[in-house]
Amino acid sequence: MTSTRPPTEAKLTQPDPDAVLHEGYIRAIAQMAYVWGWPMVNMVNRRAAITQAPHPGLLDGVLPAAPRGQIGMLHNYIDPAETFVTCPNQDVVYGLGFFSLDEEPVVIQVPDFGDRFWVYALYDARTNQFGEIGKPYGSKSGFYLLAGPNWKGDVPAGIAGVARSTTELANAIPRVFLDDTDEDRKAIQPLINQVVAYPLSQFDGKMKTIDWATAPNIPKPGPKSDGETKWVIPDKFFDKDQFGAVLQIVPPLPGEEAMYAQFRALMAAADKDPAIKQQLVKIAQESEETIIKPFFQWKHNGKAAGNNWNRSVSNAQTGLDYFNRAGTSKSNMFDNRPTETQYFYTDVDGEGKQLSGASSYSVTFPAGQEPPVNGFWSLTLYNDRHLFHPNELNRYSLGTKNKNLKRNDDGSLTLYVGAKSPGDDKKQNWLPAPDGNFSLYIRAYWGKEGITGGSWQPPAVKRT
């Protein structure tokens, strides 16, 4: 019998470069390109901006920044005025650096943090984490090498481990837990001063130090923003140095080859025909409003966690989950992978009504039912732009870091949320809110079974 099976080396027909693409087809491919490429164009533009820093320091006095191949570090909690990223965390001391790892690998130092929680989140161009460097992984102090997918050099003696990115574009965001006490702020300084990164060519096996408390200010050009910096500009999205650059520096995942072929055919058509390029600009503008903007609402992020909260899904390891990757990139860029952190968030109270400073609320954790973690947990309040709300207490989150929280007689813990103080006897448990809309966000770092398995539920936010 003659076999009818296809040949094992079938030749795949590629898009016809001379095809005249009609308007409906252009729209279908362009919208998918916008959803798929938005997080990566975001990354391309962040690297371009942050690495303009002439030396490690603080951009505009609030954001760690450094030249390509290095990192900057804070020495305290992040400044509440920052707009580089939404949903910042005031439980840790942050660092930040962007790399081009195929040009030259980077050495990143890990001091001996002892019992303190820490993790170095390493992100590729897709916003997915690579490598495992941190307390949840049992990482030891020493020197670690960050390398790109095409680097073929020798690993020198003295390197404790190698983390290889899937793309040449990568960045690192160290997070080191800090108690909200003067004693711990003093104790953490010699540790974070050893959190330093530099090109492999500068590695000499000796621990380098930088006094981050005296890091110089780097003036930030341009106007300030009342929301997150706009890292993706729809009018420029389909330019060669934006989406075009992504197609060049981010290799396709298995199964994405056909999608890349369609995207490249679309870009080629726009390059030949200015009318198509104008159509792409219009589609990008529409897609920003109708597809990307709704991701800012927490109900479009992750999955239901009970009591009108949602929880993160496939964070920082999205693979082909373009929906959650786009959602995270829009609403809370640079989250940790699930083995490191689980996130719970809500815009509404237990009855499904929008959280607003016009009302007051309570969040009560029954005795023994606070988020089960090996690391730490916190409840953070964000304004309607997912940034901090300035307040006289300079208080933006409550949780493990706070040593003066007052518990109820039965051992439960009630946190109060609202624009008005709940009273002097409850003030230490109060998160001040703006007069307008706001959201709440629970972090559970290095979760135990109840967190990782999904059985733990956040308590309902009750209007009081």
Automatic annotation (TrEMBL):
Domain DUF1214: 340-448
Residue ranges of every copy of the DUF1254 domain listed in the record: 70-199
A matching Pfam family: DUF1254
InterPro entries, sorted: DUF1214, DUF1214_C_sf, DUF1254, DUF1254_sf
Stated name of the protein: DUF1254 domain-containing protein
Source species of the chain: Lysobacter auxotrophicus
